[in-house]
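Quick one: structure for this chain?
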Amino acid sequence: MTENPSPRMLRGRCGEDEGVYGNHNWRRPLGTDRVIYGVDFSGAKDAGNKIWVAKAVPDGKRLLVSECYRARDLPNSGKGPDACSSALADLIRSETNAAFGFDFPFGLPTPLVEEKSWEDFVLGFPSRYKSPEAFRQSCRQANRGRKLKRKTDTEARTPFSPYNLRLFKQTYYGISEILFPILQDSGAYVLPFYEPIDGKPWILEVCPASTLKRLMKDGVPSYKGPEEDKRENRRQILGVVKNEGVVLEKDVAIEKNIIDNKGGDALDSVIAALAVFSAIQNQDALIPEDEGYWKIEGYVYP
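Got it. Here's what it folds into:
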């Protein structure tokens, strides 16, 4: 059993000097000085090539992006999902003053969860589902093929159900290879399930598609693909992101990587970092006002 207290236990352990979990009476400053990592995650066979990581540092109202690279370039990483997920988990553990944004679902719709808490759900996930395919089949059978969404998916306008054909491997590997080992060794605080306090990294669920819908009210142009118009759309979206305070420290090199990456994954990692930056700037965004559904299903920081 993990050493992390459950959300219910944590709420009772917070004293007046530290703030009360579940409301907004924080006495300690938020982690606005934390290094921020945006991770565009993947469960593909060549996940090390597909996953991009953006590293950034807050500077007042600006977010300075210093690196943007593939997960295969991490120490002890590789192209397969197991190797690069393990390398990402090691990165999380090593960055005790960082906040990580991952774009895979941290949970499932409540009707699909038998456990009484999100923590128990994650800790039981690998033994319950032996493969991505078994995971998807189980979810589909439980709902006669319907694709249920979590409440946070509806609120944040995420594009897919957690077990959608395009997302189920991402969900499976994210929970089993990132969240499960991190919870096992108490390697980080996963928000909003645990109080965001000092001493350990924070992990937040983000969705670049949701963030773009928030920033681009008139619609988000298609930007994934090798075509010239998709390339120009990536450039346009990057301009929108820059207007939100993102600064590329190595401007030419990083921007070239982002624009040249035809899958849009490099751009998505920067958007993921921006979503984390926005969340930790606003204490009201860290703990959802609705104290119900997210305790089981999770919460997307848009």
